[in-house]
Write a structure and sequence with these properties.
Shape of chain B: globular
CATH topology of the largest domain in chain A: Aminopeptidase
Number of domains of chain B: 2
CATH architecture of the largest domain in chain A: 3-Layer(aba) Sandwich
Distance between the termini of chain B: 45 Å
Structural class of chain A: alpha+beta
Number of strands of chain A: 17
Radius of gyration of chain B: 21 Å
Shape of chain A: globular
Oligomer: heterotrimer
Number of strands of chain B: 17
Number of domains of chain A: 2
Chains: A alpha+beta, B alpha+beta, C alpha+beta
Radius of gyration of chain A: 21 Å
CATH class of the largest domain in chain B: Alpha Beta
């Protein structure tokens, strides 16, 4: 390939990903990430706009003839919480936005609202609990966000909240919140800045993925692309089996490279695109893996059903512990995902749509 | 040196110091106590003792202030594919563990290495039946350090301690959240008292003790009491503040009062004397009922050698034994001030009044 | 040759009954075994056998080594008109390991354990069990209320694996005895305590530790393993060397003692394992809590099927434990 692109993960990249990961951008209020995307992509300001739902859409034109119009998607929103009722001084009842296992909420520091007001989700002292109580999951309606005495002046109901997690490097790994899907946002920013000219890159930074792929639906309608690719993050359930049996349903594994989707709950991946991605990885010597067919879904679920249909596929960075206070990914997997996407886009032409493998 | 309570307390919350492994917290407290006392030394179980001599004629009576400095946490029981299996040090409700950030205290060529990690829940399909729904029993939880298996094998061994890594954070209204405010809030209060006493006349010898291993059974307090044998002891620990999920048993409003324990570990005459001092100085002091013992160092201090009269103070705290405990700094200062006023007003013959009627 | 001696001592100890509170017989056997190798030997008020060896010199410490010589057993609570004896446990006895078992009373009477019928889904409990001593009536019974028995099982060797009842803690007592014999010069004043009543709450070690007033203490005891099919999760395995206790549910070993033991094992090139035991306690906890507090640890011998009549240890683990213990005690203690 010409146009060799070898991404690195240095201080500049760590800073950007930290800002993205640490931002509070719960589905329905993605303003903080939108601002970062705008600030990063000033060079595209004339071809960038925010649509009716809040998606940030960038049209980056290529230069050759016969260019494919390729939608690449990453969602800006994250799962989180919203304050719903004041229950005493500085104490708030809340609901969960998106899918968070309530077992992940107890005893965690949080941030609330645009000002990132510090708070905590406490739990009854173990000394005061009964054995029966400890055998029950603490339900969300029994928990409160506590921002401290007099805190009712600092925040208000309707404010969104998320875990007070900051991105950290742990040896070969990154640990941070909302890496689902800020890694995708990060990668899409990098792809735009280093875009190959053989395609028209239609970048969609979408909203409300966690509430049912809602932003991607209108973004894809707007772009009406030839093909669509969702860049997301997928669970790596590669933990040991308690009784040392083989873990046959790991979904993906860390250090396995980018995960190419065959089928999830929302999309059956386009065979031509799957082949294109896996062949690119092989040709470039990039480690890759299939995401085991299973449940779940990415924005591809919305994109492929848009208008008269869009051949679509998903590529994900494997990640442990999604939708918890922090996920964990390998830096190598992240870089290899970016590398694969760039190499694949660089070799893309219209012939891909001629073959009939479906 | 001017002593400032909030930075000192935050610095104490930033180190581990699990029960039995208190060196790191002791090292934070020692220089501060050295400034405020005549002499410091360490007990055979690692409790820190600081002596502030009184001005009375010898033989002087002595009062001990005991506040435990150890922390609850976790310990490595096994290593599997780079993941750590864990058990507890002290009492942790396993329901608060998933998703907690921790520090694994491993070692490399004899030097301690601190590895950041987090407690994680394996997916249900990797667990036996009782791990497939409901709260996960602790035996199924793992710690992931983000390191690859071969690296973990080099750095971590069975028995290494794991501390909570939640950073202290100031919440609104002069409150502070963090792990191990139980009982470093009381160490801060004790230090506040020593600071006040350093500028006051007091007849009695005062020995402050930051005890070890309270969370695993009052081990440090047991030995220190035996060793020091004070005329009486003030044991200060945290108590339950009103708050979410607290239930009806919890009585005290954080930020509004500190407590004076009334129960089997507490000498009534000392209780009354402390109450009188609080009234005199208008320090709100509520009665905390502990008819069968309060589960603090007091339990072991009281029965050292031929017995020691004890009075117990409490600082209300929310979410005890979670990494997001919350305490009011105002209460911490109140407790420190009350101890200082009480001690500086002790007459040499005070013990004559500590009697059963 | 050394190995034979170790096995002989072990066999003698495990085949002697001695439930908590009835340690006379086992105490006298141990006393005879060690008398010629120590400076002084005495029995304290609770019945602990205490042997002193060495005099404290430069760099030395007063050290207490405690291995308990009692074992779990049963005590008769009632003998019915037909001669069947009901009982309670002395220490942690599981009904599962009783059923069909045999016992021997301190007066030499033998008995077998039988069980009442169980209701559907009922779990066996000690209350459902009884001892049949062959008596046909209350009058005919050679045992009565308060009589004590231990479990009866012969000592067998299965290659390197050794099986008997009361490996807990006679395996450890054997290690202490062999270490005691092998120590020639020491700057330490060592008190080998063969403690009583450990199985009912470390009671012997509590008074022994107060009396000895040591500067450092090590319990020698067995620990369970995680190396059997679908067993408990635990890293300790049979045959992988002495286990150095970091903690159990009774105490947290002093890190200085832990490191002292690790360093000695490394220096001798012995295999060793770190032990975190989530259930069970040892004399180490009693030593630790004495007077103003004593740094204490525990040298553990990996043992499968603890508190069953067929406890299994590994002979290499035993020999390495002897070597580790003797090495620790023969040199100045520098912490």
């Amino acid at each position: 390939m010409t146009n060799k692109y070898s991404p690195e993960f240095g201080q500049e990249e760590l800073d950007l990903l930290s800002r993205l990961s640490n931002a509070l951008s719960v589905s329905g209020d993605e303003q903080e990430v939108r601002e970062i995307v705008y600030a990063e992509l000033q060079e595209f300001k004339d071809s960038m706009h925010t649509d009716a739902m809040g998606n940030v859409l960038v049209h980056r034109e290529g230069s050759g003839p016969d260019r494919l119009r390729v939608l690449v998607d990453a969602h800006m929103d994250e799962v989180g919480m919203m304050l719903t009722r004041e229950d005493g001084d500085g104490l708030f009842e809340f609901v969960v936005v998106g899918g968070i296992d309530p077992r992940q909420l107890v005893g965690k520091p949080v941030i609330v609202g645009r000002q990132h007001v510090p708070g905590v989700i406490g739990a009854k002292a173990i000394h005061l609990t009964t054995k029966e109580e400890r055998e029950q999951v603490l339900k969300v309606n029994a928990l409160r966000i506590d921002v401290g005495l007099g805190g009712s002046k600092m925040v208000e109901i309707g404010d969104r909240a998320t875990f007070a997690t900051t991105l950290q490097v742990l040896g070969p790994s990154l640990r941070g919140k909302a890496l689902d899907d800020r890694l995708g946002v990060f990668n899409l920013i990098q792809l735009l800045k280093n875009a190959p000219d053989n395609i028209d890159l239609l970048a969609a930074f979408t909203v409300q993925e966690e509430l049912g792929l809602r932003g991607a639906k209108v973004a894809a309608y707007h772009f009406n692309p030839d093909i669509g690719i969702a860049m997301d993050s997928t669970p790596a359930n590669d933990l040991p089996h308690f009784d040392s049996e083989v873990n046959t349903t790991h979904n993906t594994k860390l250090d396995g490279g980018p995960a190419i989707y065959l089928m999830d709950g929302a999309t059956i991946g386009d065979r031509r695109l799957i082949k294109w991605l896996s062949e690119t990885a092989e040709a470039e010597g990039i480690p890759w893996q299939y995401r085991q067919p299973g449940k779940g879904g990415t924005d591809a679920g919305a994109i492929h059903k848009t208008r008269a249909g869009v051949p679509s596929v998903s590529v994900s960075v494997p990640q442990r512990y999604l939708h918890s206070p922090a996920g964990m990914v390998r830096i190598d997997d992240e870089l290899n995902t970016l590398k694969l996407m760039h190499a694949a886009l660089s070799r893309l032409d219209k012939s891909i749509l001629k073959s009939q493998e479906n | 040196m001017t002593f400032e309570i909030l930075p000192f307390l935050k610095s104490m919350l930033s180190v581990a110091g699990l029960s039995g492994y208190e060196a790191s917290i002791r090292d934070v407290i020692t220089p501060v106590w050295q400034e405020l006392s005549d002499q410091t030394w360490v007990s055979s179980h690692g409790s820190l003792h600081a002596m502030c001599y009184g001005e009375g004629a010898e033989p002087r009576p002595k009062v001990m202030i005991a506040a435990h400095m150890d922390a609850i946490g976790l310990m490595v029981t096994g290593i599997e594919d780079g993941f750590l299996r864990i058990t507890q040090v002290g009492g942790v409700d396993p329901r608060i563990l998933p998703g907690q950030f921790v520090t694994v205290h491993g070692s490399q060529s004899g030097q301690t290495v601190e590895l950041p990690g987090m407690v994680v829940m394996p997916p249900a399909h990797l667990l036996p039946k009782d791990g497939q729904k409901g709260p996960l029993p602790q035996k199924y939880l793992l710690v992931d350090t983000g390191l690859r298996a071969e690296e973990v094998e080099k750095l971590v061994r069975v028995g290494d301690v794991i501390s909570f890594a939640t950073e202290p954070r100031e919440l609104s209204g002069d409150t502070l959240s963090g792990h191990t405010l139980d009982n470093r809030a009381s160490v801060a209060a004790t230090t506040f008292a020593l600071d006040m006493l350093s500028r006051r006349k007091h007849l009695w010898d005062v020995i402050a003790v930051a005890t070890s291993q309270e969370e695993v059974g009052g081990i440090g307090a047991m030995g220190s009491s035996f060793d020091i044998m004070p005329d009486f002891a003030i044991v200060i620990d945290v108590t339950f503040a009103k708050g979410p999920g607290g239930g009806d048993a919890v009585l005290f409003d954080m930020g509004k009062t500190i407590t004076n324990t009334w129960g089997s570990c507490d000498h009534p005459a000392l209780y009354e004397a402390m109450k009188a001092t609080a009234d005199e100085y208008e320090i709100p002091l509520a009665r905390d009922f502990a008819p069968s013992g309060s589960g603090t160092d007091a339990y072991d201090v009281q029965i050292a050698q031929a017995g020691i009269p004890v009075v117990e103070l409490g600082i209300p705290l929310r979410y005890m034994h979670t990494p997001v405990e919350v305490v009011s700094i105002k209460d911490v200062k109140r407790a420190g001030r009350l101890m200082a006023e009480f001690i500086s007003n002790l007459p040499l013959d005070f013990m004559n009044t500590v009697r059963w009627e | 040759m050394k190995s034979d001696e170790l096995l002989n001592v072990l066999q003698m100890l495990v085949e002697t009954p001695g439930p908590s509170g009835s340690e006379n017989l086992i105490r006298s056997k141990i006393e005879a075994e060690i008398r010629d190798h120590v400076d002084e030997v005495y029995t304290d008020a609770l019945g602990n056998l205490i042997a002193k060896k060495g005099t404290k010199t430069e760099g030395g410490k007063r050290v207490m080594i405690s291995s308990h010589v009692d074992e779990i057993g049963l005590m008769v609570t009632h003998v019915d008109d037909n001669g069947f004896a009901r009982f309670i446990a002395i220490g942690g006895v599981s009904p599962f390991t009783c059923i069909g078992g045999r016992v021997v009373f301190m007066n030499g009477t033998h008995g077998v354990i039988g069980m009442e019928r169980l209701d559907k889904d009922e779990q066996p409990s000690l209350a459902k069990l009884f001892i049949d001593t062959g008596a046909t009536s209350k009058e005919d019974s050679k045992v009565g209320v308060g009589d004590v028995c231990g479990f009866e099982r012969p000592f067998v060797t299965l290659g390197k694996r050794l099986v008997a009842k009361s490996m807990d803690d006679r395996a450890a007592a054997t290690v202490a005895i062999q270490a005691l014999k092998s120590i020639e010069n020491t700057p330490n004043e060592i008190y080998f305590v063969f403690s009583v009543q450990e199985e009912v709450g470390l009671r012997g070690a509590i008074t022994a530790a107060y009396g000895v007033d040591p500067e450092v203490g090590i319990a020698v005891d067995v620990t369970r393993t995680g190396d059997t099919p679908m067993g408990v999760k635990m890293e300790v395995a049979l045959g992988k060397g002495p286990a150095i206790k970091v903690r159990d549910s009774s105490f947290i070993a002093d890190p200085r003692v832990v490191n002292w033991m690790v360093d000695e094992a490394k220096a001798q090139g012995l295999p060793y394992q770190m032990e975190v035991l989530e259930a069970g306690g040892t004399d180490g906890a009693a030593i630790q809590r004495t007077r103003a507090g004593v740094p204490a640890g525990c040298l553990s011998i990996p043992c499968r099927y603890v508190h069953s009549p067929s406890e299994m240890v590994d002979v290499d683990d035993l020999q390495q434990s002897v070597s580790l213990l003797a090495g620790l005690l023969s040199k100045a203690i520098t912490f």
